[in-house]
Amino acid sequence: MTPAGDPNLSLRSDVTVELVKSSASDADVLFAARVSTLGEQSLEELQKDPERSKGLINYLMRDRHGSPFEHNSMTFFISAPIFVFREFMRHRVGWSYNEESGRYRELQPVFYTPDRTRKLVQQGRPGKYVFVEGTSGQHATVSRVLEESYQQAYAAYQKLLAEGVAREVARSVLPVGLFSSMYATCNARSLMHFLGLRTQHELAKVPSFPQREIEMVGERMEAEWAKLMPLTYAAFNANGRVAP
Ligand SMILES: Cc1cc2nc3c(=O)[nH]c(=O)nc-3n(C[C@H](O)[C@H](O)[C@H](O)COP(=O)(O)OP(=O)(O)OC[C@H]3O[C@@H](n4cnc5c(N)ncnc54)[C@H](O)[C@@H]3O)c2cc1C
């Protein structure tokens, strides 16, 4: 969507998650786990008995033998608002990040605005919040106020750049609704820990209450991971979505 005003400013309500590189399969888990009892094994050997493989992965997940789930890698390209990345980068263990620079390149005017599906109103007390639908009026106000604010902030950024001010200084005027992009690399164990905290799911033994926008990123990563490691994914769900 392109609002009136700066014709280059665009508003987005979605996030992008692209799996750009991976080396991740259920066989990687079996391979790592079986070294403890059987030593080195061929891939054919590992895949000979699918029921046993499924059982072993489930046992590892249930009893929280976590390290066999680390011998794999997934790299995602993610575009999301800066406030999502602020939360994302709190996940320190088993994650590597590289984010676009606001020092070396001019930041593009792409900003976040919630769509009609985004619950707007927070009720309750800290630790016990619920989010409920906003009214049409609230949605209209949010869209208008965000757009006005983004227009003003980006115009200020451009003004400072035009005055010859360095990008790293000029960016101070930009809000956390600005889109950024990054590569994030993880393994199945670190992803499961992330998903346990950043998604809400009926199978979760320990409920979490993530911000919707980081959950949207989590859901997209989860969909990619489920295709790569279906047995591990099923065991994660069957054991209450607690990272081993
Ligand atoms: C719903 C929700 C609300 C949140 N609200 C806030 C908030 O208001 N303010 C805020 O600051 N953060 C907040 N956070 C962030 C939260 O506190 C964690 O920083 C974030 O979820 C990452 O979790 P983690 O530390 O387990 O992950 P990682 O950093 O990936 O760590 C993984 C695991 O490694 C171990 N570990 C890592 N580092 C250490 C260490 N230094 N010492 C000992 N063990 C370690 C722990 O077992 C940890 O669980 C929130 C998170 C969620 C999900």
Q: Explain this structure to me?
A:
With 244 residues, the chain is α+β, with helices and mostly antiparallel strands. It has helices spanning 26-38, 43-46, 50-62, 82-88, 136-162, 167-170, 188-198, 212-228, 230-238; strands at 10-12, 16-23, 73-81, 95-99, 110-112, 121-123, 130-132, 179-186. A hairpin with a 6-residue loop joins strand 6 and strand 7 (130-132). Helix 1 (26-38) crosses helix 3 and helix 7 (188-198) packs antiparallel against helix 8. The structure holds flavin-adenine dinucleotide. Residues 90-93, 193, 197-198, 208-210 line the site of flavin-adenine dinucleotide. The site of flavin-adenine dinucleotide has 10 residues, from helix 7.
Counting DSSP H or I runs of 4 or more residues, the number of helices is: 9
* Biggest pleated sheet: 4 strands, antiparallel
Based on the structure, what is the oligomeric state of the protein chains?
single chain
Shape: elongated
Uncertain stretches of 5 or more adjacent residues:
none
Looking at the overall shape, the CATH architecture of the domain at 10-112 and 179-238 is: 2-Layer Sandwich
Order of helices and strands: EEHHHEHEEEEHHEHHH
CATH topology of the domain at 10-112 and 179-238: Gyrase A, domain 2
Q: What's the β-strand tally?
A: 8
Q: On the 0-100 scale, what is the average pLDDT?
A: 93
Rg for CA atoms: 22 Å
N-C termini distance? 42 Å
Helix content: 40-55%
For the biggest β-sheet, the strand order reads 2-3-8-4
Q: Give the class from helix and strand content and strand pairing.
A: alpha+beta
The ligands found in this model are:
flavin-adenine dinucleotide
CATH class of the domain at 10-112 and 179-238: Alpha Beta
How much strand?
Answer: 15-25%
